[in-house]
């Protein structure tokens, strides 16, 4: 028996798909890259942005013919879209060939739902309410070697006015420190070279008396040669203690993902971000003062309701003032059920598209300039993969920059010193330094 998983969204969803794969593996399924050859197909959905939803709708709808040809095929819908209010019933009406729908709090029930479908042929929907406790114990099938994702929190308490996450993922819960350290120690012992701690807001991690800086300190102190990174950090919870821990450990990546979202105080207030432009910039200044070579990446949204041209210009100026190395840029996407979705003053598509293009140009120009300064320098990269089209190995340095190089043997999972000979946008090319 074979399974195929289609994943939408961020690294947290990628790791959740690894857990889904773990459930399927325990039932005797093996991974299959082609949908047509699979016995069970799982869609792990994301509803944070409209594009992800539209892709999911299109891909699920395309299965109608395959399901008709293979009626024994089991089609499963999970993830955030399944947990949205009313969406499970909508999917059942629109795509009646879906066999199982399970919510974000019901992963532990997936094996039972599948066994029920195989034994009786009956369809199932499991959308239980949020649980108080965190269910550890599912062994993931990891697909990102030499990188490994480790959840430290689930859910979110921030309720940014544009964000659906608290409604579909629930309130924030922190895993026990001992469980996290045990998992990281196992992964390092198994040969994983970069451990990424995951949470909607890692900075607010709290397990009893242990806060995030103390947890990060312990994770980075384990034996072995490995890197530690984390995402995502919320500026409202950023602290001097966190910077001190990053400075203390050379194996903590010298990059911080700190979503700004906007450069305008009024828009930040409407977004319910609970910090100001000045507070954000003061955090960047603190980081740069203590760790001068640390790079900062961010998320930026344009076209939020009532955003003026002047306020957009404040976001543009923030790109330069904060000196971002790169940014994920988005046009505001209204999510039904959030406070922002009911706001007046929607920005037209034409204006939003114009603003996003200008923002992307500004970010890319800054990224190219930073990349060009790397030529002639040597960096240690962790080799992650082989690009068959380029015929080159690739990996990232401790700053998150991608480097490509040639080798006559498999280098995935190794640390390699790379002298940069050429920069092309965000990508660096070089030769291995012996």
Helical content (DSSP H or I, runs of 4+): 25-40%
Number of strands: 21
Radius of gyration from the alpha-carbon trace, in angstroms: 22 Å
Low-confidence stretches are none
Share of β-strand residues: 15-25%
> Mind summarizing the main beta sheet?
6 strands, parallel
- Label the structural class: alpha/beta
Strand order of the largest sheet: 2-1-3-4-5-6
Quaternary organisation of the protein chains: single chain
Distance between the termini: 46 Å
| Number of H- or I-type helical stretches | 14
Shape: globular
Average pLDDT, to the nearest integer? 94
Q: Can you describe this structure?
A:
There is one protein chain. The protein is an alpha/beta fold and 434 residues long. Helix content is 35%, strand content 24%. It is built from 14 helices and 21 strands. The strands form six sheets. A six-stranded parallel beta sheet has the order 2-1-3-4-5-6, with helices on both faces. Helix 9 runs parallel beside helix 10. The longest helix has 24 residues. It is globular. The chain starts with a strand and ends with a strand. The mean pLDDT is 94.
